[in-house]
Amino acid sequence: MNPLIQLKATSPLLIALALLGFALLPKAQAVIPPPPGGYPNFTTAAGDHALQALTLGVGNTAIGTFSLFSVTTGNFNTAVGAGALDLNTADSNTATGAAALLFNTTGTENTANGTAALEFNDTGRHNTAVGAFALFSNTEGSNNTANGTAALQNNTADENTAFGAGALLSNTFGFGNTAVGAAALVSNTGASVDTPNGGPGSANTAIGVSALSSNTEGAFNTAVGANALANSLGLDNIALGSGAGSNVTNASDVIAIGIAGANVDNSCFIGNIYSNVQPIVGTDPDSVTINSNGRLGRGNVSSRRYKHDIKPMDTASETLYALKPVSFRYNKEYDGTQTLAFGLIAEEVAEAYPDLVGRNPKGEPESVRYDQVNAMLLNEFLKEHKKVEEQQATITQLKKDFGATIAQLTTRLDEQAAQIRKVSAQLELSKAAPQVVNNP
To answer: Are strands 341-343 and 326-328 parallel, antiparallel or unpaired?
Structure first.
């Protein structure tokens, strides 16, 4: 047997033996006059009809008119206040306050401290109510804790925790809720449905005055901060900060941190970011990325420490020539301004080079890795630049060679011109010489 279960099962016997030990101690000088209400079996009763039906019960204490009126064989109950535990027949309940646990019958190990606290509890077990009208309407709900006036006042479900006046005041069927703060989850009701993993109005956590105060049947929501999350029916929302999520009324899967947010499913809003201008300059600021699992991280890392299999890109960048840049406008739900944009289509890029696209958890193309495209553009630019440099060197060499050839040709032409001038001069001299004619 589980030791805890075994200890629980034997605890009444242990308590009885302990009390018996006290009873067998040597009698001290009795007080005069003797205390009222001392009865056998460690029973104390004071008040009209207090413990009136008791037969074999041990260790019961009833102080107040009709307190523990119906108990017969129940043990270790304590009732202080008129009508406290009036109908109780079970064990180990404690009620302090008029009408506290008034209608409890077979519920065990409940504690009620405050006027009408747990008044209508019938069979519920392991409940704790501190405050007037705390867990007032609970009948069968078990393992609930309410601390504060009217906390969990209308509850009938299990495993709810409320700290603060009016916390979880309206809850009836929702279970597994936690409300800390006055009026936290005050409107939560839940719905009478049998769902093993939590039904409407269940498993909500609200910490802060009026946190999740409008929630009625929303489930699995978390709100931390005064007036955080105005949700009523939405699921799986998170709001952190005073007034955070105050614009989220019935949307689901919304995260709002320090900002009112918007009533849009599957969205995230974080305050004090858009207004904080921080250009990526110098050596400190950096960009942030997110993957499909929602993990955030630094995006601009390029140290050799983070890389392996490093080798030249070579011809891999020639894939760029297969890409088809387009102009487009995003759908209105993503861009209400309908501004003209330029870029690539992820599905088309995936056909040309699959590693250039980001994919969603389903493996569908979702985004283009433009940073990789930029690196490939740089590689193509450097390749073209190298070609230009080589061509320039060739041209320079050709110019050099051509210049030498021209110089040689010029020298030869100069020499030829000189020879021509020399010959011309000789011809001129020949023409100028007198001719002697011999007459016969």
So the answer is: antiparallel
pTM given for the model: 0.75
The DSSP bridge pattern shows strands 78-80 and 145-147 to be: unpaired
- Give the pairing of strands 205-207 and 222-224: parallel
Per-residue tokens: 382: 């450097």
Cis peptide bond upstream of 33, omega within 30: yes
Question: 313-334 pLDDT, tens per residue?
Answer: 999 999 999 999 999 999 998 8
User: Across the strands, what pairs with 288?
Assistant: 298
What is the C-alpha separation between 287 and 285, in angstroms, rounded? 7
Query: Please, are residues 146 and 135 in contact by the beta-carbon 8 Å criterion?
Result: yes
**What is d(CA 88, CA 63) in angstroms, rounded to the nearest whole number?**
14
Pick the CATH number of 311-422 from 3.30.70, 3.30.420, 1.10.10, 1.10.260: 1.10.10
Residue in 239, 228, 236 with CA at minimum distance from that of residue 253: 236
Residue pair 156/172 in contact (Cβ under 8 Å)? The answer is: yes
What pLDDT digit, counting tens, does each position of 250-260 carry? 999 999 999 99
pLDDT at 138 over 70: yes
